Amino acid sequence: MASSLTCAGVIWALLSLLCAAASCVGFFMPYWLLGMQMDKPVSFGTFRRCSYPVRDEERQATVMLEQCGRYASFQGIPSLEWRICTVVTGVGCGLLLLVALTGLMGCCISDLISRTIGRVAGGIQFVGGESELFGSVFTLHQHLSSHWERLTG
Q1: What does the alpha-carbon distance between residue 139 and residue 17 come to, in Å, rounded to a whole number?
Q2: Reduced to 3 states, what is the DSSP secondary structure of residue 54?
Q3: pLDDT, tens digit, for every residue of 61-98?
């Protein structure tokens, strides 16, 4: 099978695929923040949550629904900051996956990736990584500032 990549390029493509897969799995998993609510373990990510409170109209009480699920809509995500994080992190995952799959195709198809395309792919990968970093830092800042407000409240 012909390749348009050098040995370093093949290693870059494989590591890119591994990192993109890890980023996507992390993005889709609801274990960004862990805690307890109503004596039950809860966790949530940017657009998924596990064990969350719902209103039981029959009993006129709030009960814990012990299952994982997505928010019903984009507007259902609890805050503007979490919505921004969802979009920014999702875009980052998409860019990283695009570059990784392009690199993987470059391992199999000769003359697909030139030096210029490799540099452009590296730039796109950098933007995707920065997007992921911004989403993570933004989430951490939001969590810490809300936690600080509760402590000093």
Answers
A1: 25
A2: strand
A3: 888 778 888 888 888 887 788 888 889 989 999 999 99
Amino acid at 19: C
List alpha helices for the chain, DSSP H: 7-28, 80-108, 115-152
Residue 137's contacts (CB-CB under 8 Å, 6 or more residues apart) are: none
Contact 4, 113 (CB under 8 A): yes
Rounded to two decimals, the pTM is: 0.76
Q: Of 77, 22, 88, 26, which is closest to residue 47 (Cα–Cα)? A: 77
Q: What is the largest CA-CA distance in the chain?
A: 67
Which band of pLDDT confidence, cut at 50, 70 and 90, is reported for residue 51?
Answer: confident
Dihedral angle of Cα 76, 77, 78, 81, to the nearest 10 degrees: -140
CB 68 within 8 A of CB 49: yes
Backbone dihedral angles phi then psi of residue 2, each to the nearest 5 degrees: -80, 150
- CA atoms lying within 13 Å on the CB side of residue 109: 10
pLDDT at position 4, please? 72
